[in-house]
Backbone:
């Protein structure tokens, strides 16, 4: 699966780099040629998209590597780390655009020529970004990659940006209010900064060994354990995610008169049942206790409903 995942990610990154490179060159050139701050801002944003696609490519290559002595759980969290880097690049680009737009607003230097070219380029960008967004999101869902989903979210914002530039340029052409171009540039930069913050927070769940609200894996685990005869009271269940893989720890209770061999057999049945119901489970660690055991234990989920309550409190 790792090889298929890597090849899909590689192709997606190559298409992302090629598409954004073409758009970036066209929009930046158009911005300098026409003096449009809005299309220049859109072009700079596409330039950062090239970097994010390259980072996505590198991170998926790293995450597909098998476990080793330094990384016994694997390298899948490279995706989450890369998403953080992507968010910071996007934030920096947005902040730079915001400062440039504010400067033009206060100095009154807004002057756009050849609006027809700006409109045509913005329209081409809107259509191209839409197809890139759909493509990146489909890959992100297919291989369960947080960095591809983050990249797709950025592409979705790019559609709004290009449409804003398109609408604003038409408005400037109709009204003659050149200042609108700088205002659109500022709005675009704010949207870019907003998306960077959302991407940054999105990966906190994985890096802090948490799960996103709405993840159904705890329900799957408890239902799977219930189907194993001779196993009781699954508790202290803890799940963390690394890339697309789940790692599960849980305690179960069995008849205290069972031999070690038979208790181990039940533990393996629990593991098999969980992996059967959730194919992305990479490892299951089962701790066996005698039925009726009572002790002071560390935090863990004791029922599927408890996870829902905890996430509701966090929101």
Residues:
């Amino acid at each position: 699966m790792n090889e298929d995942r890597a090849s899909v990610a590689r192709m997606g990154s190559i298409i992302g780099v090629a598409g954004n490179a073409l758009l970036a060159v066209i929009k930046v050139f158009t911005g300098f040629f026409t003096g449009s701050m809005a299309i220049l801002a859109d072009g700079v944003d596409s330039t950062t998209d090239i970097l994010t696609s390259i980072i996505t490519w590198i991170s998926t290559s790293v995450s597909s590597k098998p476990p080793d002595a330094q990384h016994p759980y694997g390298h899948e969290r490279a995706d989450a780390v890369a998403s953080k880097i992507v968010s910071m690049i996007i934030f920096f680009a947005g902040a730079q655009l915001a400062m440039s737009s504010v400067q033009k607003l206060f100095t009154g230097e807004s002057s756009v020529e050849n609006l027809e070219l700006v409109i045509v380029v913005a329209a081409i960008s809107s259509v191209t970004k839409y197809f890139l967004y759909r493509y990146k999101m489909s890959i992100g869902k297919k291989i369960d990659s947080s960095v591809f989903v983050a990249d797709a979210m950025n592409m979705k914002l790019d559609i709004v940006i290009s449409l804003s530039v398109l609408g604003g340029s038409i408005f400037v052409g109709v009204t003659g209010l050149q200042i609108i171009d700088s205002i659109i540039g500022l709005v675009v930069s704010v949207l870019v900064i907003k998306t960077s913050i959302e991407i940054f927070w999105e990966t906190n769940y994985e890096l802090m060994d948490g799960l996103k609200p709405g993840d159904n894996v705890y329900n799957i685990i408890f239902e799977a354990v219930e189907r194993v005869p001779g196993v009781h009271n699954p508790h202290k269940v803890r799940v963390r995610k690394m890339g697309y893989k789940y790692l599960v720890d849980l305690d179960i209770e069995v008849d205290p008169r069972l031999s070690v061999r038979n208790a181990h057999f039940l533990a393996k049945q629990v593991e098999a049942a969980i992996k059967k119901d959730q194919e992305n489970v990479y490892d299951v660690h089962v701790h066996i206790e005698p039925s009726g055991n009572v002790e002071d234990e560390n935090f863990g989920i004791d029922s599927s409903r408890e996870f829902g309550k905890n996430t509701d409190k966090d929101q």
